[in-house]
Amino acid sequence: FETESDTEVVLHGYEKWGHDLPKKLRGMFAYAIYDKNKGEIFISRDQFGIKPLYYYHDGDTILFGSEIKSFLACPKFKKVLNKELLGAYLTFSFTPTDETFFKGVYRLPSGHSMTIDVKKRKRGGNDERTSWKNYRFCKRKQNSARVYHLEANLS
């Protein structure tokens, strides 16, 4: 190691364990690693969801960050209100899905990682989103965010 930064530990951990790195980490984290050799971006979030991680996709534009306001600086970010979410928020005082108030912006769920194939993304490819928690998850549906939390706690 050349520094005293925890970032260096994450990078060396990724070199050793690759996509299994989140299973080895303890504590709160959210990170993104660009793997030039694989042509992919790997993002991951801690299993309790303490550190936020948001992502946006529209055509060839990919944005991710710990705050949505960081997306506002990108001229390609479309600031469109997600009207479908307003009813749930006004009813429950929170958003019950991974969606946010901006269309196309999502929260990466706690204990999840996502691999973005940079080359395929430019051609409109799909992201691979996986859970690495030691919980049993149901298949994700658009409005089933609370279901997988319930199943995880009952197992």
Largest sheet geometry: 4 strands, antiparallel
Low-confidence stretches: 122-126, 133-155
Structural class: alpha+beta
Q: Distance between the terminal alpha carbons, to the nearest Å?
A: 40 Å
Q: What is the helix content?
A: 10-25%
Q: What would you call the shape?
A: globular
Number of helical regions: 5
Trace the largest sheet across and list its strands: 1-2-6-7
Task: Report the count of strand segments.
Answer: 7
Residue fraction in strands: 15-25%
Q: What string, H for helix and E for strand, traces the elements in order?
A: HHEEEEHEEHEH
Computed over alpha carbons, the radius of gyration is 16 Å
Mean pLDDT: 80
Task: Give a quick precis of the structure.
This protein has helices at 6-17, 21-24, 86-92, 118-122, 145-154; strands spanning 30-35, 40-45, 54-58, 61-65, 105-107, 112-117, 128-131.
Explain what this protein looks like in three dimensions.
This protein has 155 residues and is α+β, with helices and mostly antiparallel strands. It has helices spanning 6-17, 21-24, 86-92, 118-122, 145-154, and strands at residues 30-35, 40-45, 54-58, 61-65, 105-107, 112-117, 128-131. β1 and β2 (40-45) form a beta hairpin. 15% of the residues are buried. The model is unreliable at 122-126 and 133-155 (pLDDT under 50).
